[in-house]
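Interim report, section 4.2 (structural modelling).
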Amino acid sequence: MEKQMNMENRTRSATPAIAITNLTKRFDDFTAVDNINISVPPGSFLVLVGPSGCGKSTLLRMLAGLEPPTEGEIAFNGKVVSSGRSGVTTNPASRDAGLVFQSYALWPHKTVEGNIEWPLKVAGWSRDDRARRIDEVLKFLDIERLRNHYPAEISGGQQQRVAIARTIGPRPGVLLLDEPLSNLDAKLRVDMRSELMRIHRATKATSVYVTHDQVEAMTMATHVAVLRDGRVEQFGPPDELLRTPQTTFVATFLGTPAGNPIPATREGGAFMFGKTEMVSADLAPGHEKVQLLYRAQDITVGAREGRPVVKATYAESAPIAGQSMVTCMIGDLRLTVMVDGFYRAEPGAEIELCFLRDPDAVFNTDGQRIS
Amino acid sequence: MRRSLMGALMGAMLFAAAPAAAQDLDSMTPEELYEIAKTEGNVTIFSLSSRIAQIKVSFEEKYPGIQVEGVHLNSTRQIARLQAEQRAGIYAIDVMYMSETPIVYRDLVPEGLVEAYVPDRVKADVPEALRENLLTHRLSTRALMYNEATHPDGTPITNLWQLTTPDWSGRVLIDDPTQRGETLDLLTEIALRGDEMAEAYEAQFGEAISVDSDLQGAGEQFIRDLFNNDVVMINDTQTLRSAIGIISDGPKPVGFMTYSASRNNERDGMALQISNDTVPGAGILFPAVLALGKNAPNPAAARLMVDFLMGDDTPSGGAGFEPFFVQGDYAARRTIEDHPDAIAFDDLNLWLINPEQTGQARQRILDLVITLQ
Amino acid sequence: MATLASRAPWMARVVQSRDIVPLIMLAFTTLLVIAPLLMILFATLTPDGMAAWQAITNSPLSRNLWWRPLGNTMILGAGTAIGCLLLGGFLAWLVVLTDVPARRFLAIMSILPFMIPSFAAALAWSTLFRNDRLGGQAGYFASNGIPIPDWLAWGIVPTLIVLIAHYYSLAYTMIAASLSSVSGDLVESAEMAGAKRGRILFGIVLPIVTPALISGGMLTFAGAVSNFAAPALLGAPVRMQTLSTRIYGMVQTGNIERGYVLALLLMLMAAALLYFSDRFVSGRRAFVTVTGKGARTKRFALGRWRWPLFIFATLIGVITTIIPVIVLFASSMAPRPGVLFSNWTLHFWIGPAGTSIAEGQAGIFRNPHLIDAVFTTIRLGLTVAGCAMLVGLLIAYTIVRYKASPYTRILSQLSFVPLFIPSIAMAAAYIAMYGTSLGPLPALYGTFALIVMAATANLMPYAVQSARGVLGQISADIEESARMTGAGAVRRMAQIVFPLAMRGIMAGGILVFIKIVRDLSLVVLLFSASTPLLSMIAFNYASLGFMQFANAITLVILVICLIASGLVHILQNKVQGWKSK
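Predicted structure of the assembly:
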């Protein structure tokens, strides 16, 4: 808690590296980005996470200067680079930002070296400086032997490295990454993740990283913004989002495994799930219907004395670090629970779920946190 | 190009300085014109014939110091270009040598876009009708032609109306009158000669003609009957010639084309001959005229060029006329002899068109032909 | 990294705003295309013009002046487009995506027909198929006892065949350029999915090259619709008129307003058609195949079909290329125009002057203007091709990248219009408009610049369509990543977009080159220098009645085109070294 306070103080006192104010983007009658406010201090690693179509890529493109905002402002280090009101949009290049494209967008007619060199040339670097910098980034990304290859001749992972090398070449103050790992296989993705962390540490560039993969968000971010339908659902450090999700959406989107919101209705002095009494109604006075958030580790298979038990249908299970992550269904409701050891059952078999602890949080029917 | 622009400027200045100059120039002798033309330095002529290249050589030889810019353009293009230029206030053309006179008299002459010039020297040699307005240089033909080898005893068509009989169904060739002005002129002339056509009809069929109610005269009836008799249209001159003229077995069609098509008979193994004995007429004579562009930049050189093209007093017309001296064409200047292998001008059974009249009647005939196609 | 934009914020706004670039291009197009178009329109608003509207749209003449020619034109246009796409698409597939033998050879064969003027193909057709409708000598088949019915000798069927034979190389060029950017991955992934070859072709490859198919279809359609020689030569004997022969005829017989009205109506029809094809294209997702990941071309193994398909493709090439060339060649050697295959002489090529042949005219190689004309022609061809491709690239770029702007659609339609403007009208409009100084523009009368301008406008559709086909396949990411570096629009164009689109641009350039070196009607009206062009020399000879010389010149032009496209072919392979490895 104290740490969090510190961070907020710092954010307030220092000029934010990126400050997004009331940012809105409309395409004809479709609102892609809706009144977003985010700011992060220098050196942060901001991850924009959300399902497809949540507006995260549009937001990134506005940060890059590839799209002008309809309303609101973006400021880098206190300087307004995009403003919907004045219509001013600073040229992508003069915002001191670099963008790594999801498709890598390497120039297919230039060699690896040519791809890295060109932005430097455009920025007016001298020949010597360019040569030195190219060597540096090639080495930094361990792609020196690919120097004279064309993009079509190298693998996807290598192309990814070239794309990053090209972007960090001119030493941008802000590094923007658009789902850079989505095209890689699982193993390469983990490797590249740590590689990106290393690059972030080494370049100290404030980074904005767009992904739909919450694991990437949780592992890499200093700040996470969960986006949904063009709005920020919740913004904060990853642990805070995990610990105190403000909405059921955040709770179900983040964490491995994600949390389980369970609908419950007040009956007498308790909230009931179906016919099972879950918890005392004092938890949320004045609410008739709520959603109770249970962590996966707070639910298990097999009845325990004195704890609520409901019946569910087994769907699947996956072993994780000595435990089993079991997915099961109650009607249309999908629950993920943890069982010690290796657990497996016939798909479709009826099992008993036991709620070990009281709910972590209570949300109203709209998904907003009550307590 | 700079040169001709300069020329245009100089010409314009000259023109502005001396408004009466044109009249004076018109009555000057070639020698006097040459003196002024030398200061102009060049002359631009648009010519319907590519033989203008030869004229360039002989003219420059005869009149050193004057450079000829000879542009080979068909008449329609000459007219279009002149109109466009003058609309833009550009006066760059000195002399135009063109046919399509019905359009010239309809679109250029009334607007004053071209001016007539008849050198005094040749006035007496050119029949009045050929120099009333623009000066005619030579007369070309569009006439009924047949294959002399197939019909050694003379033309199979003694009366134009035979072309409308079943015997000649699908066997009369013509270029598309909606595409070729000369052919349209021919049909127009036939339409204008309604009385003669009516007479010929009676001679052919032994009864008076009854003309459809929507048509005016026997000539228009002939056109309708000709098209309804499956006249075949061809757009390729070469094909038209060989279809009628080639020497080979079997029946041959007849058709309308220029008489001068017969001049290469020997070379091409053909036997084209004009059907001069056909009544009431075998076709038309139409003029190619020489005109000065309005505000011609080199007015003296322009006149000198016209004078040169009209030829000298020799029977061949000399260097100025000779290149255009083709068998089957006829010089307007009657001192120049007709080609020895061609029918003499006076024996021709062809109608000389009146371009202004033709111009007025042409539209109606064109529309008639369009409905018949 | 301080750029223009930081110094001049309005610059940044210009680059960002989605309408301004299309508007600039539209203004530019206005100068080149709309202005002459308006002149034509105004010419039809005079009393004579109104009478022409009346005659064409609502009079007893309408049927033969407008409706029937329109019907024929549409049949020819649609038939040619379909035929060309099938034939050109097949050859492009064979050359680019299969392991057919002698691919280079087939590639060259497939672009040849467009270099051979369509009148030569028509001439070849009638040499073979002419029947006794005209009397005189019959064609090859008829004289060998094979009766040829009228419908096969004259009219819409042979015209259609000749047009397809002439224009399919246009479709080939567009589709081949586009196919060569189809990534091998896509094909392989389809193969992995177990799709059969035909399935891959129709299910994967064709949809990807849809933009090129549409472009090719529209161009061949427009080409066929505006073609004059084939319907004029093959249609007249059975009284078939198309709008192009009608327009020509109306201009030729002094009814220029009627010609203009027909041209305007034709443009309207074409615009409507374009509108729907645009709708059709934008209704589907545009496919982007040149992505930042580069692409390798994957070739199908044809297996036992390798040789049969090769022979089939060669046969197409021979029929559409070699036969017309032989006929052209023969007609440049035969002293008698009707008898093509006997008594051959080289006189028309190299004979001395003053002999009894050809009224003493020397062979073309003794024509003192020939060498000059060759160079003037090449200079004109290169300049126009360069200008047209530059303009085409800019317009195509605007069309592809600024899809959202409503002006883009107008631009896209306008870029097609010049194909339908009769060249006599185009030239006249250019003289009238740009002959005198116009505001800041100097007077261009009689200058090379005016010819280049008019020819550029005239051939713009070829340039725009070929550039559009290629640009449409370059992913926006690639260019945006260049934008991120701060490279200005010109630099991005020159160093990123241009090299990637090079292949298609050069293919378009060669089309423009071929068109302009053969062109007569537009150039002859604007050219007044004393050094003639080859096409004008050919016209001179033809008007003297010596088709042999004219055909010999046509062959010289053909050779120039061949060399030019050979060079382009070599260049294309050079600049795309990044692909072929």
